[in-house]
């Protein structure tokens, strides 16, 4: 085909794309303007596509949430039970009393070697759920400890830097009447442990599961509204199964006989600096295929920096989303909006927007999780701190929603730290990526509680990445209402350590776990 023919062909293609987009917008507006408010009902889920998106997402826990404080779950007038750390059994650690402000007769220190721990035997007269508090001192910076209950791993506890003894609301534990061993392992080490406290919880409050009453985008597509409504409806009743990487689905089906409800996809190889090195992607095509099967689509973006790739051994171009492999400075780019670096940020977003438009034109709602794990700092979008990351997120939200008119996105934020939260007005779902020690199937209830506190219980809560899958029965028992999980790819489902075949079968066959086979018949939407 000659150059003139190419130009004619391109012009026709652009014209057709514009026409299709106009038709889609007009149709959507017509649906919205003629719609009525309808409460969520799984038997009439297809009818919900004709709701007004501004009001269609209904909080299924509205009556509960009006009478329950989702943050304060303590039983009224429940006393604190204190157990001093220095009275426990120490291994590699020892009791000390040289610091000031401790409880009891001292504290436990010298958590330095991997095998160091203190085991504290506790006794309760009433079985049930208890809030666990830890008294500590961490003068050497932020730390994390390993927690075990009766020798079983039970997640990590975060200890903020403190030169004096402080208390942290660690997690909640389900205890039988009588004795239980609580073990604090080294974790990051170099902290002092003072005591643990227990306080009985009001289990009647645990039925509350946060939901998202309205999507942040008032023009959200009918398909996005239907999907959010469905997630709300299942919150607290069930957990949706998920798997990262489309090619992993066959393996899950081979092991369990079922397929996950959610599949995680990645825009990574659409990043322009990866394309310049020859990267190619078919993720959008795979997502369209999964959508046709009735599955739910989730996307993240391992965003290769728009410039400044170091590209040397150990810092190769394909590691360009890692802070240590680029020289790109986000704060500097945002500070000068006339700079080439800032322009490249926008042009990269525009490239991804075109891929999302393909999904929108095919009526695919997307759980979209940009700038994930920003607070970790290991990705360049988090390396400049919370203010820069929040500004970049807000710029992307505005550019995608208002300039590119992308209304099929349900926006997922991926940090528990309030300092990093970009705001309720641009977030639909709050989430966490969970990677406990291999085989730790505890419900990660401490992180769940932090996400509840982050928004006051006003946003749906998801585990958008995980290694070991939390036990669905434990999630119910502890009131940790993770709406969904998405197990990361490769060894997390094949090494037999994080999730054995037997455990995967247990999870996928569990009555509280929704798989592809249990999803509703979306009809033509989504």
TrEMBL record:
Catalytic residues (positions): 373 (proton donor), 465 (nucleophile)
Occurrences of domain GH26 (ranges): 222-517
Record keywords: Glycosidase, Hydrolase, Membrane, Transmembrane, Transmembrane helix
PROSITE patterns, sorted: CBM6, GH26
Stored SUPFAM superfamilies: (Trans)glycosidases, Galactose-binding domain-like
Single GO MF descriptor: hydrolase activity
Gene3D superfamilies from the UniProt entry: Galactose-binding domain-like (2.60.120.260), Glycosidases (3.20.20.80)
Spans through the membrane: 12-31
Keyword Transmembrane helix: yes
Residues covered by the CBM6 domain: 81-199
Keyword field contains Transmembrane: yes
Family designation: Belongs to the glycosyl hydrolase 26 family.
Protein name: Glycosyl hydrolase
Originating species: Paenibacillus septentrionalis
């Amino acid at each position: 085909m000659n150059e003139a023919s190419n130009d004619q062909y391109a012009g026709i293609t652009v014209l057709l794309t514009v026409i299709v987009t106009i038709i889609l917008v007009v149709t959507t507006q017509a649906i919205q303007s003629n719609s009525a408010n309808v409460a969520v009902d799984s038997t009439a889920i297809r009818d919900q596509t004709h709701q007004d998106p501004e009001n269609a997402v209904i909080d299924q826990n509205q009556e509960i949430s009006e009478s329950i404080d989702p943050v304060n779950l303590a039983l009224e007038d429940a006393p604190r039970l204190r157990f001093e750390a220095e009275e426990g059994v120490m291994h590699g650690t020892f009791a000390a009393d040289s610091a000031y402000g401790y409880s009891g007769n001292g504290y436990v220190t010298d958590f330095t070697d991997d095998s160091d721990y203190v085991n504290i035997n506790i006794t309760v007269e009433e079985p049930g759920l208890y809030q666990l508090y830890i008294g500590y001192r961490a003068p050497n910076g932020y730390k994390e400890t390993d927690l075990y209950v009766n020798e079983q791993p039970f997640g990590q506890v975060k200890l903020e830097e403190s030169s004096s003894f402080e208390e942290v609301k660690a997690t909640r534990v389900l205890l039988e009447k009588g004795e239980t061993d609580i073990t604090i392992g080294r974790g990051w080490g170099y902290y002092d442990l003072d005591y643990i406290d227990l306080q009985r919880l009001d289990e009647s409050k645990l039925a509350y599961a946060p939901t998202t009453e309205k999507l942040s985008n008032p023009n959200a597509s009918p398909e996005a509204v239907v999907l959010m409504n469905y997630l709300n409806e299942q919150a607290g009743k069930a957990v949706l199964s998920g798997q990262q990487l489309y090619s992993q689905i066959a393996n899950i089906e081979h092991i369990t006989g079922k397929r996950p409800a959610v599949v995680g996809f990645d825009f990574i190889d659409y990043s322009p600096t990866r394309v310049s090195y020859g990267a190619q992607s078919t993720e959008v095509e795979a997502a369209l295929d999964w959508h046709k099967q009735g599955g739910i689509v989730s996307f993240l973006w391992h965003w290769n920096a728009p410039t400044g790739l170091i590209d040397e051994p150990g810092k190769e171009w394909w590691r360009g989303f890692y802070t240590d492999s680029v020289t790109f400075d986000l704060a500097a780019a945002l500070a000068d909006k006339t700079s080439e670096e800032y322009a490249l940020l926008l042009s990269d977003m525009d490239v991804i927007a075109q891929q999302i438009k393909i999904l929108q034109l095919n009526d695919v709602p997307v759980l979209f999780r940009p700038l994930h794990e920003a607070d970790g700092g290991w990705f360049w979008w988090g390396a400049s701190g919370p203010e820069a990351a929040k500004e970049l997120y807000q710029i992307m939200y505005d550019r995608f929603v208002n300039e590119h008119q992308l209304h099929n996105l349900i926006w997922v934020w991926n940090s528990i730290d309030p300092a990093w939260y970009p705001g309720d007005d641009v977030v639909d779902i709050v989430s966490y990526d969970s990677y406990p020690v291999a085989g730790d199937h505890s419900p990660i209830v401490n992180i769940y509680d932090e996400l509840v506190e982050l928004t006051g219980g006003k946003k749906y809560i998801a585990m958008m990445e995980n290694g070991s899958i939390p036990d669905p029965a434990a999630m119910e028992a502890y009131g940790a209402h993770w709406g969904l999980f998405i197990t990361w790819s490769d060894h997390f489902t094949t090494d037999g350590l994080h999730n054995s075949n037997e455990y995967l079968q247990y999870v996928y066959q569990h009555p509280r776990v929704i798989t592809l086979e249990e999803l509703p018949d979306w009809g033509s939407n989504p």
